Amino acid sequence: RVRRNELQSPASSPRSSPDPDLTELLRARIGEDYTFAGVTQDGEIDEVMGGSDADETELILFAAPSSAAPQSQKIRLSSPDAEPREPGMLVKPPRSYYFTDEVTSDREEELQAAAVDGDAVLEMSRVPWAGCAVPWKVTTISAAGLQKTIRVGHPPKLIPVEEKAHKKKRKGKKARIILRKKMQATTTKQEEQSRTAQEKEEADREKRTRRNREKKVKKKAREKAKKAVDDTVTAEAQPDGEEGGGSHETD
């Protein structure tokens, strides 16, 4: 990308006053080296000016800003003349550029050393290039899976890879507070369940004890009632026997 300010010359600093002695010396040397001839004919001036204008073309190369008027740049065009010439390149290289004349023995040895035939190319293609081979960048995957090995150096050498144990990352403060609350709620729930189970077990034990006590009381009452019935039956049967025995003795 070319900017407009790069094409224009930078603003130069103000010139200092020239040295009069140096100016006179330069003028004297210019007068010695060059001869100046004035142009007196107007036709020659028009011809020179016309030829210079014919080779120049004004083109607007860059878009001008909206606040300023468009500026055109003059470009000098040059093209070869239209004279008839032999077809070919403008600059013809010499024949020695393409062909070699009779060579000496030393030159022939140099050419033979630099020349390479097809057999030499095939032979060099089979030679390994130690500096260009990077086998450790190649990953070989077999049917069994990826091997945990890496090729290092040249010639290839296998080195086992030890997988490092992943360190457990500590959770953040908010996560730790939430986890602590969950653990506290779980502990409270477990204690409540344990207390409820204990109270239920004590209630069942007390109920069984009360039932056993009632059974014993009822059993004693039944035994007591049975004994009372037996005593009544015995008492009713015993007076009859005692009365008969007394009359027999009296007689």
TrEMBL record:
It comes from Massariosphaeria phaeospora. InterPro entries: C630.06c-like. Residues 189-207 have a biased composition (Basic and acidic residues). Residues 1-22, 65-93, 157-251 are annotated as: Disordered. The lineage of its organism: Eukaryota, Fungi, Dikarya, Ascomycota, Pezizomycotina. This is Uncharacterized protein. Residues 9-20 have a biased composition (Low complexity). It comes from the Eukaryota. Residues 166-183, 208-225 have a biased composition (Basic residues).
